[in-house]
Amino acid sequence: MAQPPDVESLQLLVHVADQGSLTAAAAELGISQPSASKRLSRLERRLGLRLLDRTRRGSALTADGALVTGWARRVLDDLAALDDGAAALRRARTAQLSVAASLTVAEYLLPAWIGELRRADPDLHVGLQVTNSARVCELARHGEIDLGFIESPGRPSGLRSRAVAGDRLVLVAPPGHPWTRRRHPVDPAEVAGTPLISREAGSGTRQAAAQAFTAHGLHPVPPLLELGSSTAVRNAVVAGAGPALISELVVTADLAAGTLAEIEIAGLTVERSLRAVWRPGTEPAGPPAALLALARRPAGAA
Q1: How far is it, in rounded angstroms, from Cα 224 to Cα 215?
Q2: Transcription as a keyword (predicted)?
Q3: What is the spatial distance between Cα 122 and Cα 285, in angstroms, rounded to a whole number?
């Protein structure tokens, strides 16, 4: 590409995906339908991909379009995070509670914990870093955070830790994938020998999956795709790129809606503890202790 896509085109693509209609997306953004159509055609030419199937009943994403839309959402989220971060720097506030969390915990669990913490203490300012589990542990070892949350298997060395929640990795594929038509569970060796969509090296999800296969004497082949977040993995599977082992937290709604299908692996389950970590020789007190207590509380408790 001569230059990256413009933000307005990415916003339009995401609105088309959400509204299911180019006309509705254009109205939502306050532009004319012809302008929106030209903008998306220009985006398709720039990327060299067909993103939409246009019919009289509306506009549907192609498989490539679904993948690009997932990435566009991440770009727009990152831009929003940039704006929020810049605003925080302008305020020059010092965080009273410094937290780092792996992506799955940060996306699906931590918002509720922090929200409840701030309802109890509205003046509390939380500084949050979202990264993979290996980096969270590194930050905790160097005392750069008060508390970290990881999804790696086992207890990390050189840190204090405590289990706060449980999670399970599930093998998922879109409906119609050959594995979904099997009458019996898929053999672990077949799964290990199949390139899957995967998180990047250093992520807790990838470590947990590798450890489970190693326990069965298996060594997974290199991934089909390596992506930087569980949401990106989920989007790629929904788009039909391939199957993946992914946190059940990420795909609960998809499994209930039938957007994705869970595939049982014969004799192999991948369960893990999500853990809080902090620097040795210390014990959480004040806001870190309150956050740890919230994290450890059973789901649904008042």
Answers
A1: 22
A2: yes
A3: 18
DSSP line for 35-74: HHHHHHHHHHHHHTS--EEEETTEEEE-HHHHHHHHHHHH
Instruction: Tell me the two tokens of residue 239.
Output: 């788009």
Handedness of CA 257, 263, 268, 270 (dihedral sign): negative
pLDDT greater than 60 at residue 93: no
Q: What is the tens place of the pLDDT at every residue in 158-204?
A: 999 999 988 899 999 999 899 999 989 999 999 999 999 998 887 88
- Burial class for 226, CB neighbours closer than 10 Å (0-12, 13-18, 19+): middle
Distance CA 43, CA 61 (A): 14
Q: Are 195 and 222 in contact (CB under 8 A)?
A: yes
Structure tokens at 68: 């690009």
- Cα–Cα distance for residue pair 230/105, rounded to 1 Å: 10
* Distance in angstroms (rounded) separating the CA atoms of residues 184 and 243: 17
Q: Please spell the DSSP secondary structure of 147-182, one letter per residue.
A: EEEE--SSPPTTSEEEEEEEEEEEEEE-TT-GGGG-
Q: What is the pLDDT of residue 125?
A: 86
CA 61/CA 233 separation, integer angstroms: 17
Q: What is the pLDDT of residues 132-142, one digit of tens each?
A: 888 999 999 99
Cα separation of 167 and 90, whole Å? 38
